[in-house]
Amino acid sequence: MNGISVGDFRERARRRLPPFLFDYIDGGAFEEQTLRQNMSDLRALALRQRVLKDVSAIDLSVDLLGQQFDMPLVLAPVGLAGMSARRGELQAARAAHSAHVPFCLSTVSVCSIAELRAEFGRPFWFQLYMLRDRGFMRDLLAQASTARCSALVFTVDMPIPGIRYRDYRSGLAGAPGLRGTLRRFGQALTHPAWSWDVGLRGRPHVLGNVAPRLGNKAALEDFFAWMQNNFDPSVTWKDLAWIRDTWTGPLIIKGILDAEDAQRAAQLGADAVVVSNHGGRQLDGYRSASHRRPEQRRMN
Question: pTM for this structure?
Fold first, then answer.
């Protein structure tokens, strides 16, 4: 099928990807109430229609952090994107460059900072979580600086990984060892196009930025165990100050919904915030970003 709408592309992804990958992308936390609320609140937003305005030359260009882009759109960081398409982060970075919009690489990407810099050859944004191992964080920040990343996106709404029921049902999480590997392998066999293009030709299937810390334990279940053990639930505003002192470039704080939090981030030297509830993937039963529009006005 040809892709025209978002729904079309979602259906193409559902057909192409093994269920454990499609559900990872498509799913939300727990019963997915917030995920559904995100979509319904966004659909409920109404545009103000004005007529007889000259629209023959529409200019969507925008200045973001001192850089000019063709539209106010960013390709956000997506974990495991390189498992959905062959070296997916590299493909996304090239697409973003073609459209002249920013691309942001996730900490938990398949392509590493070094690979993207070597193969892409242009500045990109880098997203970072707060980890217990501050030395590892310094290493990642140093790599991002060496790669001349043009902005750091620091995620603050994930002190611990969220629980997504779909990941357990599909076998992406909670299925350790040989049993989980065989379950995912069986799903891959029923999707031959993905198995050939990504499963075989898209190797290595490791989290490029995290692999040096995982060593020989680079399987998916080892990665999720590493996340559980290394995300820092004790993170506070003092840690944001440490990030600001360590990173000298533009700093964007991702995961802000409250105006007071946005003001605090600005006081600590953040250059911008991303109003987000992590797509409903971390907390469930919370308000959507669209619902918080009155708060957002106070953030300006």
Answer: 0.91
Residue 4 lies in a domain: no
**Token pair for 82:** 């390189």
Q: Among residues 97, 100, 191, 278, which one is catalytic?
A: 278
Q: How far apart are CA 230 and CA 201, in angstroms?
A: 30
Q: Is residue 250 scored above 90 in pLDDT?
A: yes
Report yes or no on 54 lying in a domain.
no
Read off the CATH number of the domain in which 145 is found: 3.20.20.70
Q: Which pLDDT belongs to residue 286?
A: 84
Q: Is the pLDDT of residue 59 over 80?
A: yes
| Active-site residue flag, 100 | no
Query: For residue 71, what are the domain limits?
Result: 11-43+60-299
Domain count, the chain: 1
**Would residue 161 count as lying in a domain?**
yes
Residue 13's H or E segment, with its range, is helix 6-16
